[in-house]
Amino acid sequence: MTAGARLGVDVGGTFTDLVLLRDGQLVTAKVPSTPADQSEGVLSAVQVAGVSDVVAFAHGMTVATNALLERRGARTALVTTEGFRDLLEIGRQNRPSLYDLSMGRPRQLVPRELRFCVRERMGPGGVIEPLDEQSLHEVVAALRSAGVEAVAVCLLFGFLHPAHERRVGEAIRAALPSVHVSLSSAVLPEVREYERCSTVTADAYLGPKLGAYLANLGDRAVAAGLPEPLIMQSSGGVTELRRAANLASACVLSGPAGGVVGAAYAGRESGYADLLSFDMGGTSTDVAPIVGGVCPVTTGAEVAGVPIRHPMVDVHTVSAGGGSIAARDAGGALRVGPESAGAVPGPAAYGRGGDRATVTDANLYLGRLEDGARLGSGEVQLSRAYAERALEQLGDELHLTAQETALGVIRVANAEMARALRVVSVERGLDPRRFALAAFGGAGAMHACALAEELGIATILVPEAGGVLSALGLAISDLRQDLVQALPAPLTDAISERVEEGFGELEARARASLEGPALRLERQADLRYRHQAFELTVAADDVSALASNFHAAHQQRYGYATPEQPVELVSLRMVATLPVDKPVLDTPPADSHAPAKSRRVHTGAAWETVPVHVRANMGAGSRVTGPSVIELAGATAWVAPGWSGEIDSAGALVLTCRES
């Protein structure tokens, strides 16, 4: 470690978490989030933790994600090639729920009246029709009249031939200097017109809001004596604040990515390379596979109904968090989420005006959380009486007692989270029984045993910093840049020279943006069988092995490969990372024999008086047997009957199922 400390701050929907790493030691803090201005919560956490001597500050947030979910981005226009005005609306013509005739599509980020066309046409070989300057002049005038805050430009074949896009961007910036402009050739120079258009539109839509937030945060951080923040990207690496503000679409999974990085790190420290990360916070649950100690990164995903084609940690999110509201649906069934009580007013148990039952209220009623416990830095105190009142009210609608309602809420939430874990394991060709479950977030360790039993997982890992693991992931994240270059061509020996030239250009760009003797460059390529619609990304360090790497990846993902079929190259990718020093996690042997407390907890079958251990009084080798509760800093672990475990040398609680 270098002199000074590394700081990570993660803003969640309910709490803002902080981790300070200094000389291998962790300082943590948790405060309520401030949705109106997330930077308020960030600075509050810094103040509570008494931060000083910080050499690096990494930040993950939900500003971009929330703007997409709530459709509260900038007033955005789209400029595209004449004849392609409705590209966003047409999309892929797929239906997310084939047999649901009442399901509608998410509202487009750009309404039809704000979509404009210029006369021009590029083809694969270059200019077919020159850009008509008169049509460009008319579009600029229309943009001025429309009073837009941001403009996305996506012209046909702009990813191969960007000259027309650049000219359109120049004209808009010259005439409307205060308007944010995103060009698809800069944001996403890749094949596939719809995804490129959707991504650059999201980038323009999010740019002003994220840029304003980051500028404000940067100014406040510097004024508080902190370094300018590094911003977590969806890919699982951090980048400079200015780069993040200029590429907002690459930060939509900023918060969840930090948790996966933290889980992979904690797993390696405890000797587990294959994990399913399970991050249950106050608003949602994020799950991801970690294979061989590495977080798989996809080349795109759909976020809030918007396809975004940037490298993203392979996270799947469901609306089941501690603050998820339970309700009776139109058919009389109990549902949990997607609506959340959030930080304000929060679950009913917070006593801050919320009166609807949540998952947190159910856990408190069942004794898995302590009545009267203070959360965060003490601003929130749990009240079982408030929780019981909310559960009784919901129970009256369902004709159930408060206890039956609480147990039902837990079962429904667990079912939703188990489905999410199957998405990132079984549906990815991975057997969950081969993995350990890394449970973290404020609520993850309370539900881990039930989910592990459901999926046949025999080992659970609960890191010591599990309540703030996303913030720890931020503090130890490497700097990262993802570069891409389109190169559509058949994969033959004749293409090898063009591939090497392309990688050479990407490497030069990478070295210009990241400097240091430890810089790592990873070559990748997007490949597909001829006539396939979608491609897979494979390692490309050895160009001669591209085809064999692709066949193996296809077999893993889809269960078959056809080596006799011709393979096509689609794009070249370069992942540039600059590693940061990471501390070794260790914990001393237990030097305290403080007796465990006890309280009444419902085990799922009956009420029992169970031991309650305080993690701060435990050390390496300390053992626990279920049923029991362990109170960690910022989280609580429920050790169900049939499970037992001990604290390992890295400070993690490792639970195993005695019946497996």
Molecular structure report:
By secondary structure, the chain is an alpha+beta fold. The strands form 10 sheets. Strands 19-14-13-24-25-36-35-32 form an 8-stranded mixed sheet, sandwiched between helices. A 6-stranded mixed sheet has the order 3-2-1-4-11-12. A 4-stranded parallel sheet has the order 6-5-9-10, sandwiched between helices. The two termini are 40 Å apart.
Please summarize what this structure is.
The chain has 660 residues and is of the alpha+beta class. It is built from 16 helices and 36 strands. It has five domains: 5-67 and 214-228 and 240-251, 2-Layer Sandwich (Nucleotidyltransferase, domain 5), CATH 3.30.420; 71-210, Rossmann fold (3-Layer(aba) Sandwich), CATH 3.40.50; 324-413, no CATH class; 481-578, Dna Ligase, domain 1; 597-653, no CATH class.
CATH architecture of the largest domain: 3-Layer(aba) Sandwich
Query: Share of helix among residues?
Result: 25-40%
Radius of gyration equals 26 Å
Q: CATH topology of the largest domain, which one?
A: Rossmann fold
What's the CATH class of the largest domain, please? Answer: Alpha Beta
Q: Multimeric state of these chains?
A: single chain
Terminal CA distance reads 40 Å
Major sheet: order of its strands?
A: 19-14-13-24-25-36-35-32
Q: Kindly state the number of beta strands.
A: 36
Instruction: Please outline the major beta sheet.
Output: 8 strands, mixed
Mean pLDDT: 91
What's the shape?
Answer: globular
Task: List the uncertain runs.
Answer: none
Overall SS class: alpha+beta
Number of domains: 5
What are the SSEs and their pairings?
Elements: E1 5-11, E2 15-22, E3 25-32, H1 38-49, E4 54-60, H2 63-70, E5 76-81, H3 87-90, E6 115-118, E7 121-123, E8 126-129, H4 133-146, E9 150-154, H5 163-175, E10 180-183, H6 184-187, H7 193-223, E11 230-232, E12 238-240, H8 241-246, H9 254-270, E13 275-280, E14 285-290, E15 297-298, E16 301-303, E17 306-308, E18 312-313, E19 316-318, E20 324-328, E21 334-340, H10 359-365, E22 374-375, E23 380-381, H11 384-398, H12 402-423, E24 436-440, H13 444-455, E25 459-462, H14 469-475, E26 479-490, H15 496-513, E27 520-529, E28 536-539, H16 546-558, E29 567-578, E30 597-602, E31 607-614, E32 623-625, E33 628-632, E34 635-639, E35 643-647, E36 653-657
Parallel strand pairs: 1-4, 4-11, 5-6, 5-9, 9-10, 13-24, 24-25, 31-33
Antiparallel strand pairs: 1-2, 2-3, 7-8, 11-12, 13-14, 14-19, 15-18, 16-17, 20-21, 22-23, 25-36, 26-29, 27-28, 27-29, 30-31, 32-35, 33-34, 35-36
Helix pairs in contact: 2-7, 4-5, 9-14, 10-11, 10-12, 11-12, 12-13
